[in-house]
Batch of 4 targets.
Target 1
Amino acid sequence: MTSAPQTSPAPLTIGPLTLDVPVVLAPMAGITNTAFRRLCREYGAGLYVSEMITSRALVERTTESMRLINHHESEKTRSIQLYGVDPKTVAEAVTLLVAEDRADHIDLNFGCPVPKVTRKGGGAALPWKLGLFRQIVEGAVTAAGNVPVTVKMRKGIDSDHLTYLEAGKAAEGAGVAAIALHARTAAEYYSGQADWSAIATLKDTITSVPVLGNGDIWSAEDALRMVAETGCDGVVVGRGCLGRPWLFGDLAAAFRGGESGAAAARIQPDLGQVADAFRRHAVLLTEFFESEERACRDIRKHVAWYFKGYPVGGDLRASLASVVSLAQLDDLLGTLDGDQEYPGEGAEGPRGRAGSPKKTSLPEHWLDSRELVSAERANLTEGEGDTSGG
């Protein structure tokens, strides 16, 4: 196995943006809202991307989409991810963000494997239609002007329908500022092991812009190993930070000091520190939602992630997962033995649902041609119909 680098890497440049730590928080629906981004930033450094926002919802200025594109004043680099399947609508959404000075970086989602997205031809399904993919990216880059546009994608639909190399070259030709690859197909969902060799292949193929690797980064050591093995210019971290916002502190130490720096500065919180982070997350959610009740509903899904491996009983976990107020949350957290030490391996490794390989939901006859046929083009409007905002 190739050893991890021992010296600090060069800063990551994405258009006019320079990141001294080449780390990006992956957009995650229902997770990477302002509250979670702020919490992660308090521990580390890098680029923190919003949850996915539907282009049509943004163009129609729905209440939810307009709330999701807001950033806290502490977020100096405002990064927004857009999803869409219609070039015109995506370009209009980008134009809105730029004209109203709402973003410093825009990412385009071509990696989502969720059936409700792929069955409309979006997310990881879309690069199969290479011409459509190119139109969307070119239109977004043109509309963005000086604001850098990046793309995040998967290897393809399945092992028989890989798209990442052609899509990567098309995106590079369209003028994107960076390309991120989640090294799984849509059919793999989050199962099995990410194919880091695909990241290396993409890095060898794309020569003019940074290539970022995504998939199975559960620790800072994993991030260093990915860079060493693939040559990628930076890493995108998703599920590995669920319930572990301090991972970004580990990552910053690792990239600034190499493997030895990562080991020396590794954050291993006791139960009291985890409880403090959990409560801080709830407080930030309260600010974001402007509702304590809604914040408490939202924090419930984070309980299992934060307390993974710690000696927290089932009854208490259940109570935390049904909390209705910050006062109740304080009472429950007050019953914990905060001096319980970091449990090691039990708190580490994979988190979040991996799922299992499955046939990807696609529009009828989607795989018959790499180009968009007239009947499919007519259905693009339907594909933009989800105006939920993410």
Target 2
Amino acid sequence: MSKKSVKKVVLAYSGGLDTSIILKWLQTTYACEVVTFTADLGQGEELGPARDKALLLGIKPENIFIEDLREEFVRDYVFPMFRANAVYEGVYLLGTSIARPLIAKKQIEIAEKVGADAVSHGATGKGNDQVRFELGYYALKPDITIIAPWREWDLRSREQLIAFAEAHQIPIAKDKRGEAPFSVDANLLHASSEGKVLEDPAIEVPDYVYSRTIEPEAAPDKPTTITIDFAKGDAVAINGETLSPAMLLTKLNALGKENGIGRLDLVENRFVGMKSRGMYETPGGTILLTAHRAIESITLDRGAAHLKDELMPKYAELIYNGFWFSPEREMLQALIDRSQEAVTGRVTLKLYKGNVIVIGRESPYSLYDQDLVTFEEGAVAYDHRDAAGFIRLNALRLRTLGARKKKHGM
């Protein structure tokens, strides 16, 4: 499909300088009608200015879509991911990755609603987000046309972007002139920062980069004790107060922030093949992950728990690489969700200077049997003598190998 054949495109629009430039570039390059979609994922910014700027740039009111997706985001994306205890490369809680499939889904829904034949995003040609968005688009609408401006245009520097904006009367905030110190992506789960002052992995992250957490050293000297209640693997209450998914994560974010919890300085392996250094803040998610593993520790059978841990890196990699809508992710999700049927109960935690410390866990479905583990006299549920045969059977192959080594001097 040629550029001039695109009639209407749905743009993932933040209202910032880059996507405003993309909006105007789409109008001038493709001579098409542009529909803007702005998602409220809990990034903490007013979305009214995005509507105002879209209107200023000539978008019809009926072509401006702004949706509050916070509850859907946490309920249908964040919580299913946390049932899996998913972390990429051992530490990253996938805050950016998990938001992209929801945005892609809504763009496709809007495209079908307004009769658009194309969608567009503002991800660069070097990052992971271009892959995540576009895999989502294709999975949901295989014949959709995708416009990725950063792979098409010749605007290669911040100066060229500023010049384009000025030439087309696009408002430029004063702090956007010149080189930005770093880029930020935020939603209700996390805030991530990368680029510029963060590009040298040997240099400590400057204090001004952090936005979701205070320094652990500055956190209160007294620990904060909380309880989190779970039902079938999902957190449902804090300190006995039942909360919606988005409100619960919001509350955990506040608790994490004031206790300096959730900072991560990471060099990760991008799907496109390069390493990148980023700073992530996931205060509520860090608390939630610790609590979820704690309630699983007493409600999951050993075999189920270990299988989940074996599958988790694959599940996390699928999300990181943009395969949320793939059959293999859905298959893994079915297995994970099946494992959570008895993951119900309460976890008690201490939050203290960057640390999340489990101090208690209880469940009506607990597999922890005190009669089995006690060292006290009178326990009849476990016969210590049974262990001898168990050990000898498990040692059989080791004894056979040892005998061979002795015989042949190996």
Target 3
Amino acid sequence: MKQVFRITLSCLLLICASLFSELSLSAGPIDASIAPMLQKALPSVVNIRAQIKITDFNTLREIQKLRQQRSNNNQDNNSNDDQPVPDTFVSVGSGVILDAKNGYILTNAHVVTDAQIIAVTLGDGRHYTAKLIGSDKPSDVALLQIKAKNLTAAIIGDSNKLKVGDFVAAIGNPFGLSQTVTSGIVSALGRTTLGIENYENFIQTDAPINPGNSGGALIDMQGQVVGINTAILAPDRGSIGIGFAIPINMAKSVMDQLIEYGNVKRGVLGISAQDITPELASAFNITDTQGAAVTQVTPNSPAQQSGLQVGDVIVSVNNVPIKNASDVVNTIGFLRVDSKTNIDILRNNKRITVSVTLSDPKKRKQTIEQQNPFLYGIGLKEFQVYSPTQGNIRGVLVVSVEEDTNAWRSDLRAGDVIISANKQPVATVDDLKAAASKSNNVLLLNVLRGPGAIFLVINKQEQ
């Protein structure tokens, strides 16, 4: 079978070579070089070396273990492995100049997180110390600035226009080798749920990307930057043809906020959403699987206040088409607090536009906690059971307790059954809420826990 395959492959190669020869003769010489497009982008890609402070004790301990193992395996008695473990290391990556006038350089947040010193080397060999303007770990984007003249900025493309199969090139400094170019195609678009970042909408490419490429440029055939190289799937830390880049439209959105505010302050809509499958589309009596179905609306959220309902299908946000639930997360996730947002939905096959003002999640949490300081962060459920030791029990089951809340600090835990509040029996959640609303500074609870019972005190303010 293998021999037949080889013969068939050889025949195909001969046929293809013959066809290529005929095409070449008829069409004239073919310029296969991508050098002209690279000339536009190469000067804008820089090398970054960041001295990182190790703040994680576990990391220091792992370094110590590796040193000890190396020392034990080293037959040279003059080994220097007994030297103190350093509390810093050097992170090597890449960056792209996007604003020559102001010296702004875009890179990955993981390249410069906890950096004490950030050194930038330009393509022409000049060295500068960079200032960190801001970083956004959820999207893995950071913005640096250098004071330098005669910089060359990259031409920014439109990542929304990319198609699977488009030729691209990756420029960076893999393994510290400066100004390295690899080429390939766009293998896939909109890669999500990889667990690399909080906000994912990756361009997948087979252009070889290796350690040190992070923060470098992914460019199209016009020499325009369409992505920021970020991660690879690599069992042995080398390229196997599966690399990921942040779309430049997404990275540029983060960059704009970092320039203006120094941070990315995301607004919250307050929904959960789900992809539209063919089965769901049929059940919703819609013909298209493009969009995201609203599965949950958080109480007192901007979504609820705007009138969004469970079962609505979101088809666009600020005129940006929504293909799936990840698009909702990524689109809303890059809108700033207090942004007025127009959301187009399908409800009973009618298109409706809903206007929403996104809220600050921290302020919303503070407001809700102030309204209900004793019961904030607790999941409750009415409970009734017969116990051989405690008889017929009616109370309120604690389903969950958020950490760092008043209830958590009082030692209330999931599985507890609240049977009284302020010495008054509680049989329902409404009974418990009523008792809590009448309390001033403390709420006294009698709780069944395991085979016994205890009293707990929830304080209004942290003690």
Target 4
Amino acid sequence: MRSVGMLGVALALFLVAVPAGASEDLKGRLDRLQELVEKQQQTIGELETKLSVANSEDLDAARVEEIKKVVREVLADADFRESLYPDVMQVGYDHGFYIKSSDEKFLLNINGMMKFRWTGTNRQTDNPRLQGRNKQDDINGFEIEQLYLTFMGHIHTDKLTYRVTVRGDTDQSHDWITYYAWVNYEIAPELQIRAGLVDIPQGRQFLYWHSQWQFVDRSLAEEVFALGRSIGIKAHGTLAKRLSYQIGMFNGINDESDSPGREQLDTNFSYAARLVGHILGDPITSEPDLEYSKDPQWEVGSSFYYNDDNGDNRGPGLLYNIPERIRRGRGIGGNATADATGTDYFGFGMDTAFKYRGFSLAAEWYLRTVDSDSEFSQWELLTTRSGSSHYQGGYIQAGYFIIPKKVELAARMGGVWDNGGDNTWEYTFGVSYYPYGSHNFKIQADYTRIEEASVDSDWINVNQNDEINMFRVQLQAAFE
């Protein structure tokens, strides 16, 4: 502003000194110069004002961002949040929806899983009364094969946990049934006690949760030898992080929640035990190596069970091969099942699993021995076997992710043999696609060839003694 004033004084003195005739033209020029200077000064003032406002806004924005950062750090402190709202329950999602108390003494997780499946099956059977092999009715249709809802968490302490799982039966009654219902208390990592409706500890594949399978379904051999679930109590734990065990006693084999009351059980408990050595890496909890393990994982397991069935309402169907003299007279296939009442039966099994960088390998072997306690038992009447007899089974399967954590190819071979007649063999080839790299959503397809099916199974869609060619496509959706 001072420079503008000095310029005005200089112009006035200059006008006094210049002659009048010449000054008129010069005066006009100076007036225009004066006007230009004033406009420039006005522009400079406006720019100074805008600059001052911009600096103020930047400073305010920086202050706001700093305050937000402090607030985020404070709210991330769980103790601080709980001090603000000490009596408010917390709700959210973490591998399932959860509700928990602010002091975290009570927790409820809600998980769910559904498998939507298409099955196309070509079936044939051998019948000695007819010439050659006969075609049965084919199967082609959609189904919701498995539908589960799980409630789990802890009470008072994270060492006292519980689980209740219900299954929607889409095949027969269309009712919801209790699949699991147990309470578990951890005395120490080496010793935990679980009581309720639980898995009987036998068989690697059966003990994997259903969303963790490598194929559309489990193997035929597992279907024959699996013990299912029962009401009972078992101890389990891990010793030195390298040796896991389960041991327990139960009402019976396959004594599931929809069985009648205690008055229809015998006086004998069943017993089962399982031991797993974790030779390399962490414990293996699923069949495929979806995690793409950076370090090798290797486990070896064994299991044993025994049951003296003196009248349990429920039990496994004991597989046998129909004697030749009966087969010819009735014109039926080679395999059948007998009620276990009046028999002692025990089983032994061994298994192993390996994973490394997208490759997985698993194998199991089963042995079941049956001994009749009574000449009037269904087993002895149907089989004409008065002494001890046995049969064996197993499978081996492998898979590899050709696109890590996305696409896996797998193959399985297994069967049941040493049954006094026709053996059963299964061959399965499959592909699995994991769009999001997790078991929560995957699409699977497989082809299975079964020669002389040894059981009736709604799970794997086979009938006893059929020759099976089966195609399956399955979509699995879960929040776990």
